[in-house]
């Protein structure tokens, strides 16, 4: 059932691209996307058009399903989270060309360790957070042979660094950052970019952003969310059981399909999608390639740690921050901070809504300043920021809560 749902979304996304462009126009747009630098923030809808963006997203979503299936990994909540995240980031940073060297690198790592690739397949897919680094290496290299050698070496390096580091990072933040590989990728990206700068290479940040809302894009995300909600609702025998999901903190590892079943999980995913989309529109933002990436990621993690009860306080904290800080809530980077800051939802779920507001407030400041470390080449910058913030704030919260409980 899960696999069928994922395939339906992937195929529908590719077909939806035809509402924006002809097949030839889509192919030309995808080619533009492949050749364009992908550092944060590069909205593919501005680079190649919405037709190419949706097609690229559906194509990578399909490739992700096939890779997971071929690896014989268990299909459950983590699968949904990973595939939807891949679909989302394929709208601003990942394309059908730049993901493969990193996936190959992690596969080679699994072979070196003499372990089944299924153990590392999600790290391989999540690890494509560093795909913009692959694009940079390819564009800066010489002829075709040199480009291939350079990207394979870079992908292999990333592939050998990420798995052990991701395992260690999970212990560091104790499962309170849902984008764990984003934390690890930020560290790897910081290391590699620092070495590159030592040899004279300078990274440049970019802001390529679509500022106009397209009714067709809005219709797509609301229709997808409503379909998930409706599917979950009609599959449920006991409608009141929907509330059961809110009893979980969301702290890793929280597979909602195992804990509460597929119907409740689908309803939760759809409700998160509607809330996140409505939030962007109500606050004056734009549903474009980049924010679609955030919304699809939230939907996906509705199967793996997020629900309205632990997400709303974090987004509320980002919103409150915009009222007193030097930026506006509708600024591109702040829109993304609100959506991707929900990586810290388990803190809200574990310790209470007030702590969710606190970390959302702090995250909006950190996320806007951590990109300089990896030069914008880690697409999961908010996951990197969330990992650092969880490392700082969780021990403090636990200390003061223990003191309060003692008295």
Q: What overall form do the CA principal axes indicate?
A: globular
Number of separate structural domains: 2
Say how many strands there are: 0
**How much strand content do the residues show?**
under 5%
Overall pLDDT confidence: 92
Number of helices: 20
Secondary structure category: mainly alpha
Largest sheet: none
Query: What is the CA-based Rg, rounded?
Result: 20 Å
How far do the termini sit from each other? 50 Å
Sequence of secondary-structure elements: HHHHHHHHHHHHHHHHHHHH
- Uncertain runs with pLDDT below 50, 5 residues or more? none
Helix content: 55-70%
Draw up the topology in text:
Layout: H1 2-16, H2 23-35, H3 44-47, H4 49-70, H5 77-89, H6 100-112, H7 121-126, H8 131-140, H9 144-173, H10 180-198, H11 215-235, H12 256-260, H13 262-282, H14 289-300, H15 308-324, H16 332-340, H17 345-351, H18 353-367, H19 371-374, H20 381-406
Helix pairs in contact: 1-4, 2-4, 4-5, 5-14, 6-9, 8-9, 9-10, 10-20, 11-13, 13-14, 14-16, 15-16, 15-17, 15-18, 16-18, 17-18, 18-20
Keywords:
407 residues; 20 helices; mainly alpha; globular; 2 domains
Task: Describe the fold and architecture.
The protein folds into two domains: 197 residues, no CATH class; 192 residues, no CATH class. The protein has 407 residues and is an all-alpha fold. α11 runs antiparallel to α13 and α13 runs antiparallel to α14. Helix content is 69%, strand content 0%. The chain contains 20 helices and no strands. The model has no long low-confidence stretch (mean pLDDT 92).
């Amino acid at each position: 059932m899960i696999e069928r749902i994922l395939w339906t979304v992937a195929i529908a996304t590719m077909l939806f691209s035809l509402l924006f462009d002809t097949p030839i126009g889509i192919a030309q747009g995808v080619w533009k996307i492949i050749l364009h630098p992908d550092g944060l923030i590069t909205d593919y809808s501005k680079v190649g058009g919405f037709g190419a963006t949706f097609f690229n997203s559906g194509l990578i979503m399909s490739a992700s399903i096939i890779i997971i299936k071929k690896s014989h990994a268990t299909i459950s909540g983590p699968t949904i989270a990973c595939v939807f995240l891949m679909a989302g980031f394929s709208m601003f940073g990942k394309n059908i060309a730049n993901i493969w060297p990193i996936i190959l690198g992690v596969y080679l790592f699994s072979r070196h360790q003499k372990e089944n690739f299924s153990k590392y397949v999600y790290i391989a897919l999540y690890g494509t957070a560093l795909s913009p680094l692959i694009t940079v290496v390819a564009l800066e290299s010489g002829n075709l042979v040199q480009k291939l050698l350079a990207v394979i070496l870079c992908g292999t390096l990333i592939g050998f660094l990420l798995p052990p580091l991701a395992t260690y990072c999970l212990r560091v933040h104790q499962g309170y950052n849902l984008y764990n590989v984003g934390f690890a990728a930020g560290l790897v990206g910081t290391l590699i970019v620092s070495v590159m700068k030592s040899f004279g290479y300078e990274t440049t940040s970019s802001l390529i952003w679509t500022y106009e809302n397209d009714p067709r894009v809005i219709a797509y995300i609301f229709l997808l969310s409503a379909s998930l909600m409706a599917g979950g609702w009609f599959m449920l025998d006991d409608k009141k059981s929907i509330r059961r999901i809110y009893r979980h903190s969301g702290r890793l590892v929280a597979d909602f399909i195992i804990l509460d079943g597929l119907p409740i999980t689908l309803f939760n995913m759809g409700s998160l999608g509607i809330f996140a989309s409505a939030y962007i529109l109500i606050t004056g933002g734009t549903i474009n390639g980049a924010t679609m990436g955030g919304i699809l990621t939230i939907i996906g993690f509705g199967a793996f740690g997020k629900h309205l009860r632990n997400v709303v306080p974090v987004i509320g904290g980002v919103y409150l921050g915009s009222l007193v800080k030097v930026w506006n809530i509708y600024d591109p980077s702040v829109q993304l901070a609100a959506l991707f800051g929900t990586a810290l939802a388990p803190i809200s779920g574990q310790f209470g809504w007030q702590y969710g507001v606190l970390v959302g407030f702090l995250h909006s400041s950190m996320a806007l300043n951590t990109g300089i470390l990896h030069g914008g080449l880690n697409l999961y910058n908010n996951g990197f920021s969330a990992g650092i913030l969880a490392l700082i704030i969780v021990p403090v919260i636990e200390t003061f809560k223990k003191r309060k409980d003692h008295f």
